C-alpha cells in the first residue's frame, strides 16, 4: 500500500501532468464555406460582425467546454455566431486558435453575410440570422 504522503504528492502533481499533456494548436484548414450574400464596408452589418468575431475570440476560452454561441448587440444588423475549441487545448492555445480562425474566416470569406471555417482544433461560424450552435 502506498503511503498517504506519496498519494498526496501524486494528486498535487496530476494537474501539472494534464497541462503538459495538452497539445499545441493545429491550425490546418479542414473545411470552409461562405454565404453567397455579401455586405459593403459601410453597412451596419460590417460593424456588427467585427464586434461579434472579436468578442468570440476574447471569451470562448472562458466558457465551459470552449463552446460559445452569441449575437452582436446591434439591433439594426445583428450577427449571430458560434465558436468551439477542442477540449484538448489549453486556455491560451484555444485563444490562439480562435485568433487564427478569425483571420482565416475574414480572408476566405470577405464581406460574406455568413461563413464557417473549421480548423483541426477550432471552428467559427457566423450568419446574419439566428441558428442553433
TrEMBL record:
Name the UniProt record assigns to this protein: Gnk2-homologous domain-containing protein
MF terms in GO: D-mannose binding
Signal sequence annotation: 1-23
Organism: Eucalyptus grandis
Primary localisation category: other
Gnk2-homologous domain location: 27-131
GO cellular component entries: plasma membrane; plasmodesma
Subcellular location: Cell junction, Plasmodesma; Cell membrane
Key words of the record: Antibiotic, Antimicrobial, Cell junction, Disulfide bond, Fungicide, Host-virus interaction, Lectin, Mannose-binding, Plant defense, Repeat, Signal
Membrane topology, record value: Single-pass type I membrane protein
PROSITE patterns for this protein: GNK2 (PS51473)
Protein family according to the UniProt entry: Belongs to the cysteine-rich repeat secretory protein family. Plasmodesmata-located proteins (PDLD) subfamily.
InterPro entries found in the cross-reference section: Cell2Cell_Antifungal (IPR051378), GNK2 (IPR002902), GNK2_sf (IPR038408)
Any single GO BP term: defense response to fungus
Amino acid at each position: 500500500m502506498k503511503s498517504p504522503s506519496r498519494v498526496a504528492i501524486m494528486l498535487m502533481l496530476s494537474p501539472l501532468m494534464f497541462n503538459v499533456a495538452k497539445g499545441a494548436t493545429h491550425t490546418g484548414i479542414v473545411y470552409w464555406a461562405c454565404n453567397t450574400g455579401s455586405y459593403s464596408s459601410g453597412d451596419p452589418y460590417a460593424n456588427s460582425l467585427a464586434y461579434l468575431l472579436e468578442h468570440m475570440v476574447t471569451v470562448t476560452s472562458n466558457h465551459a467546454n470552449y463552446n460559445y454561441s452569441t449575437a452582436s448587440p446591434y439591433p439594426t444588423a445583428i450577427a449571430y455566431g458560434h465558436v468551439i475549441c477542442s477540449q484538448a487545448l489549453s486556455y491560451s492555445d484555444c485563444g490562439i486558435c480562435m485568433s487564427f480562425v478569425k483571420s482565416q474566416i475574414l480572408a476566405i470569406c470577405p464581406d460574406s453575410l455568413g461563413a464557417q471555417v473549421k480548423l483541426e482544433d477550432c471552428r467559427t461560424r457566423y450568419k446574419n440570422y439566428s441558428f442553433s450552435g
